[in-house]
């Protein structure tokens, strides 16, 4: 079972997973701070789906960093964390003690230490909105005053991928919601912004590792 809410202190998404057995973790373009079995871990951005097995009664708590913010707080490019799970203590020294109810406290501590550039935070938010809307890379580059090459590098540092891949993941997320919600595949493809159903099938297979039909009933979750 997956549940999520907004944190009262930071407004960040706080989530909890109670699961047992095999589950498929899907790419969501996010970095998370996770608490599991007494360990505090940073989950990097996933480029492909991974399968994880949880023991009965297992619980994982997480805080989802706002888009592009984690690298600014951790001092590590998101591209260095793709498909990785790394102990927070290996990235940041002297982190405060934590538990499942203190993830926001850790987040605030990281923010105070890093004092991230507000301009970079605004840039990350703008790029993520552009990716969600499918704005072409060339147009986004012009909007922010960067060359496409510089924008690609900036996107990898902030999100772990170039903007074209990030846009694909955002479109895939929308398709996933529609398919698991019972939408017909052709209708889901059109609403999510794909050229056609075949295009959606290719992209879902790329990111989820299974076909849209299997995704409809698969056991999936966030990191």
Automatic annotation (TrEMBL):
One of its GO terms (molecular function) is sequence-specific DNA binding. It comes from the Bacteria. Gene3D superfamilies: Homeodomain-like. InterPro entries: AraC_XylS_family_regulators (IPR050204), DUF6597 (IPR046532), Homeodomain-like_sf (IPR009057), HTH_AraC (IPR018060). Residues 121-218 form the HTH araC/xylS-type domain. SUPFAM superfamilies: Homeodomain-like. Keywords: DNA-binding, Transcription, Transcription regulation. This is Helix-turn-helix transcriptional regulator.
């Amino acid at each position: 079972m997956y549940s999520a809410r907004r944190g009262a202190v930071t407004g960040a998404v706080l989530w909890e997973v109670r699961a047992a057995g095999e589950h498929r973790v899907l790419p969501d373009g996010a970095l998370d701070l996770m608490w599991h079995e007494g360990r505090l871990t940073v989950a990097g951005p996933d480029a492909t789906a991974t399968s994880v097995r949880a023991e009965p009664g297992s619980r994982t708590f997480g805080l989802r960093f706002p888009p592009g913010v984690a690298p600014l707080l951790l001092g590590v490019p998101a591209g260095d964390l793709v498909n990785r799970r790394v102990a927070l203590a290996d990235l940041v020294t002297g982190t405060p003690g934590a538990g499942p109810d203190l993830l926001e406290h850790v987040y605030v501590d990281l923010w105070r230490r890093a004092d991230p550039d507000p301009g970079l935070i605004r840039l990350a938010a703008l790029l993520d909105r552009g990716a969600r809307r499918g704005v072409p890379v060339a147009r986004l580059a012009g909007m922010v005053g960067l060359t496409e090459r510089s924008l690609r590098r900036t996107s990898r540092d902030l999100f772990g991928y170039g903007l074209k891949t990030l846009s694909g993941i955002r479109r895939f997320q929308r398709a996933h919601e529609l398919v698991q919600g019972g939408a017909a595949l052709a209708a889901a493809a059109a609403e999510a912004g794909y050229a056609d159903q075949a295009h959606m099938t290719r992209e879902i297979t790329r990111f989820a590792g299974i076909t849209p039909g299997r995704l409809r009933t698969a056991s999936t979750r966030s990191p």
